[in-house]
Amino acid sequence: MKSRLVEESILFVSVLKWLVLATLTGLAVGLATTGFLFLLALTIKIAGRFPYTHLLLPVAFFLSALIVKYLAPEAEGHGTEKVIEAVHRRAGRIAPLVVPVKLVATIVTLAVGGSAGKEGPCAQIGAGLSSLMADLFRFDDSARRKLVICGISAGFASVFGTPVAGALFGVEVLFIGGILYDVLLPSFIAGITAYHVSASLGIEYFRHPITVMPVFNEMVLLQAIIAGIFFGICSAILIEILDLGKSLFSRLHIWPPLKGVVGGVVLVLLSLVSSKEYFGLGLESIESCLKGGSPGWYPFLWKSVFTSVTLNSGGSGGIVTPIFFVGATSGAFYAQVLGLDIPTFAAIGLVSLLAGAANTPIAASIMAIELFGPTIAPYASVACVLSFLMTGHRSVYPSQVLRVAKSASIDVHLGEEIQDAHAEYSPRESALIAFAERFFKAIGRWWRAKQ
Question: Which of 77, 91, 232, 331 has CB 3.0 to 4.6 Å from 141, enough for a Cys bridge?
Answer without folding.
Answer: 91
